[in-house]
Structure formats: structure tokens, C-alpha cells
Write a structure and sequence with these properties.
- There is one protein chain.
- By secondary structure, the protein is an alpha+beta fold.
- 39% of the residues lie in helices and 21% in strands.
- The chain is elongated and about 75 Å long.
- The N and C termini lie far apart (72 Å).
């Protein structure tokens, strides 16, 4: 009769472990958001053979940096939103081709349209790690001083686009 009392702690432990595992496997969007830090001080090669850095970004204004890959289905899904942002903010949307070949990246942009002012190439993935990338696609808004203002994990949705627009319109200090 008292044997079932010994099972209570075991059952409670199993329930707690199950809950913890479910939270680890399905974090809410934004759980990994890292803001108020500097953009990486890295000089990237670009698709067209030049170089670009985002600390501080070119142009003296807040910019968007989107890390993407041709093999990434969510990157393809968010692409129309990047095209929309590019129309609204010309010369302020940059891409970083993450762990992908130049040829595949160029073909992807040819097929989908190129919203980017410039496309940096990060074939070994180290630049993405410097940004704090958790997986493509990810989007960063970087201030004119080189500070990360917004970090969005996953494909952009309508709310994310509003947040990015607000950060791009933010006055400089």
C-alpha cells in the first residue's frame, strides 16, 4: 500500500525533466535575442570582390544586415519582406551569405531578386559566429555607430518588419 508513495518523487522528477526538455527544444522567438552590443569588427569580402564592415556600417546611417543562405527555405520565405525593406530604405539593406558558395548565392539572388546594397561572403561561418548567429535567417539592425540595436532570429514576419522600420527611422544620437 505504501509502495506508491515511493513513486511520487520519481514521477515528479520525470514530469519536471519533460517540461525542461520541451522548453529547451522549442524556445519562443526572441529568446536568444542579444542587443546593446557592438557589431563584429570584421572585414568581409563581398560577392562583387570588394570589402565591407559593419562596425561602423557604411553610409553613416542605421542599416539592416541579414544573414542568409541559398539552401535555407526560411530565407526564401522571408525574401519578399527584405525586398519591401529595400524599396523603403535603399542603400541600407546588406546581406551576409552564410556557409554557402558564391555561385549558389548569386544564383539565389538572381532568381529571387537582390534587395541588398552589398552582399558579404562568410563561407566558413566565422562571421556569423561573430554576430552571435544561432541559425539562418537572422536579421540585425546596426546603428551608425556600430551597435546592434535589433536582433531578430528566424524569418521576418510583419511585426519584425515594423520593428526594423522603426529602428531604421530612429534618429541618431
Amino acid at each position: 500500500m505504501k509502495r506508491w508513495l515511493a513513486a511520487i518523487p520519481v514521477v515528479a522528477l520525470l514530469l519536471f525533466a519533460g517540461l525542461a526538455l520541451s522548453q529547451l527544444l522549442s524556445p519562443k522567438k526572441g529568446d536568444f535575442e542579444r542587443v546593446s552590443r557592438a557589431a563584429p569588427e570584421r572585414l568581409f569580402e563581398t560577392l562583387d570582390g570588394g570589402t565591407v564592415t559593419f562596425a561602423p556600417p557604411p553610409g553613416g546611417k542605421n542599416v539592416v544586415v541579414n544573414l542568409f543562405a541559398s539552401w535555407c527555405a526560411p530565407c526564401e520565405a522571408e525574401h519578399p519582406r527584405l525586398m519591401e525593406l529595400s524599396d523603403a530604405f535603399p542603400d541600407r539593406i546588406y546581406g551576409v551569405l552564410y556557409k554557402d558558395s558564391r555561385e549558389n548565392g548569386a544564383a539565389f539572388l538572381e532568381r529571387m531578386g537582390n534587395p541588398f546594397t552589398g552582399v558579404a561572403v562568410d563561407t566558413d561561418g566565422q562571421g556569423g559566429l561573430d554576430f552571435g548567429l544561432t541559425g539562418v535567417p537572422e536579421t540585425f539592425v546596426i546603428s551608425s555607430e556600430g551597435e546592434i540595436l535589433v536582433h531578430i532570429t528566424g524569418p521576418l514576419d510583419d511585426g519584425d518588419v515594423r520593428e526594423v522600420r522603426g529602428a531604421l527611422n530612429a534618429p541618431r544620437d
